[in-house]
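Please review this one.

:::
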Amino acid sequence: MTHQPFPRSKHNAPPPPPTFGPDLAVRLICPECRDPNPQISEEFGSGDLVCAGCGLVLGDRIVDTRSEWRTFANDEGDDPSRVGAASDPLLDGEHLDTAISFKDGGNGMARDLQRTQARGQGSRQERNLLTAFRDISQWCDQFSLPKTISDIAKQLFKRAEQEKILRGKAMDAVIAACIFIACRQAHVPRTFREICNLTHVSKKVLGQCYKGLEQAFNLTPGASADDPRASVPQGAEALVTRYCNHLDLPPRVQSMCSEIIVAARNLGLGDGRSPVSIAGGAIYFTCLLTKHNKSLRDIGAVAGVSESTIKLVYRLYYADRKKIVKEKWIAEGKADMNGLTSE
């Protein structure tokens, strides 16, 4: 029984289908010699299935499964190469396509043949999957995301299509939600705004698709296809590393900023605000604390938030600065409270 990625939630899961397997009590023996351990050989030259003990022909016209041509490779064993592209585990079947050339001498026959082939080739669901997989790969390439994230998004989209979870939603919106979830599972989260700018899907529709997938598969941040309930800490600190890299800030500033965000969360500072706003305000607070000159405009351009929003989060942190700034940072000279201003 094959493993199914992204299993449905327990309360919506249908009963498992019955499993079928070969009957191990059945034995194949030669009817002539009755040998309990027969030695049956396949003679591909003549296409016969022969018992090596008595020579009785047990079958004829067997299919030769070996390579269709001679191999001159130096490697040992048979040449495993076959005609066609590599099989895709995300698609059902072998998918050995036939391409019709555009060269027809100008009589238009090639166009008619291509239209007829496209109409009769595969089902509508398979064509939708191929189109969606191509869009997922293109958008992930534009985001410079690795292939693992693209594969996770494809698996999630296929499961959503099979279960008919987001019926009636546009394909672009479903793809955008799958990419958003795949990024969170791979621990490289992207914000709603970044996904919307990439796919041109509205934030409202993206949120609806995300909620539908999250409830159907019981997904949590940092989950995987094998264990959707596994979770790792996610939030504003997950965005800090990427934002600090764009701002050319050293790694120690990144680690301090993450610890400040966690300490502020424990105190209830910034509750109800978006992770993007908290990340921008925390970076500005840490830059002043460590005397790294980064303007509000630069931080706002990287985080995608306004300067007033960053200042608002900064004022919350400044009010409780003595609680969220560790004393050892000041003792070691890594931070200076005098660099913080009330405005």
